[in-house]
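From the methods appendix. Each design record in this collection lists the tokenized structure first, followed by the designed amino acid sequence. Records were kept in a plain field format so they could be parsed without special tools. The example shown here is representative of the layout used throughout.

RECORD:
FOLD TOKENS (312 positions):
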């Protein structure tokens, strides 16, 4: 027989519906979709709020119950925010010791200030979120600039940033696949919001990707996208054609070539730029000519695709 855990604790987030509420004890039972139930205990350190977006603005408009006493302490907060059959999000510490269990709530978050509604189902939620994301990307990379040129990406774009959004001093690589995903995000932000700042940045990023990482065949019919560019201190920069990722080192993975198309395709949806479309078509021809495992390419396969090829 398995012995019960001793002095076990784990921080975790729970999502479920409230089944029972004890206002006097400032506790309630939460039933998760898995069927598991947790007795949630609140304390003077527990905060109650409504889900916030990336703008961190408070959307707490939860109405006060009848005879609510704002100075009534924890029990009154539980009475205001926690009701049976309502969905709540709980973050806290789960503890187990010799068969006894307890979940100590640090935060109790409601998905909306009105019962039965979810704030992330409202249009402004996603417009706000993509705007805050795009602004953060551009502010971290380019500072106070509000218009962008290809040279800005050449000088300031960097794949890896630290937790503060600042460049990593010991890692100054510019990866093509990651740049393409950034362009995809900026293009999507423009499609959702119409903010010209995002389109301007996407356009500059597309130009930088095409002029820096694209390698055309001699006849101009196909193209490969290099893995990235690494700045070399006091000695310019070096283009890395083959992948430097540990699992793919010294090969040209198909997935990196596919990623290179993500930003171009989303940008093309906005602009219908024929030069961008031509690069997309060249890349697809590259898939068909070099990655397709087919007799017409000299292989004996069954029309699947190789995941990697050698660069030479």
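DESIGN:
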């Amino acid at each position: 027989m398995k012995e019960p855990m001793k002095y076990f604790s784990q921080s975790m987030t729970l999502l479920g519906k409230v089944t029972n509420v004890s206002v006097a004890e400032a506790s309630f039972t939460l039933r998760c979709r898995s069927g598991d139930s947790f007795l949630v205990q609140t304390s003077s350190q527990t905060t109650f709020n409504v889900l916030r977006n990336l703008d961190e603005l408070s959307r707490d408009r939860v109405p006060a119950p009848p005879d609510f006493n704002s100075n009534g302490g924890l029990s009154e907060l539980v009475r205001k925010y926690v009701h049976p059959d309502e969905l709540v999000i709980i973050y806290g510490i789960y503890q187990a010791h010799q068969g006894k269990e307890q979940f100590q709530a640090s935060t109790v978050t409601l998905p909306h200030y009105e019962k039965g509604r979810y704030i992330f189902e409202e249009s402004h939620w996603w417009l706000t979120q993509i705007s805050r994301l795009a602004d953060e990307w551009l502010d971290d990379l380019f500072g106070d600039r509000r218009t962008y040129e290809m040279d800005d990406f050449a000088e300031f774009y960097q794949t890896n940033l630290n937790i503060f959004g600042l460049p990593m001093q010991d890692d100054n690589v510019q990866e093509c696949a990651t740049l393409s995903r950034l362009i995809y995000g900026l293009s999507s932000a423009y499609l959702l919001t119409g903010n010209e700042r995002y389109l301007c940045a996407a356009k500059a990023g597309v130009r930088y990707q095409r002029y820096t990482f694209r390698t055309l065949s001699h006849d101009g019919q196909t193209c490969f996208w290099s893995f990235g560019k690494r700045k070399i201190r006091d000695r310019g920069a070096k283009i890395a054609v083959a992948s430097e990722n540990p699992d793919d080192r010294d090969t040209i993975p198909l997935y990196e070539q596919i990623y290179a198309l993500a930003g171009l395709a989303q940008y093309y949806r906005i602009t219908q730029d024929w030069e961008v479309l031509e690069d997309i078509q060249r890349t697809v021809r590259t898939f068909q000519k070099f990655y397709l495992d087919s007799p017409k390419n000299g292989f004996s396969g069954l029309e699947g695709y190789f995941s990697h090829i050698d660069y030479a």
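APPENDIX NOTE: The radius of gyration is 27 Å.
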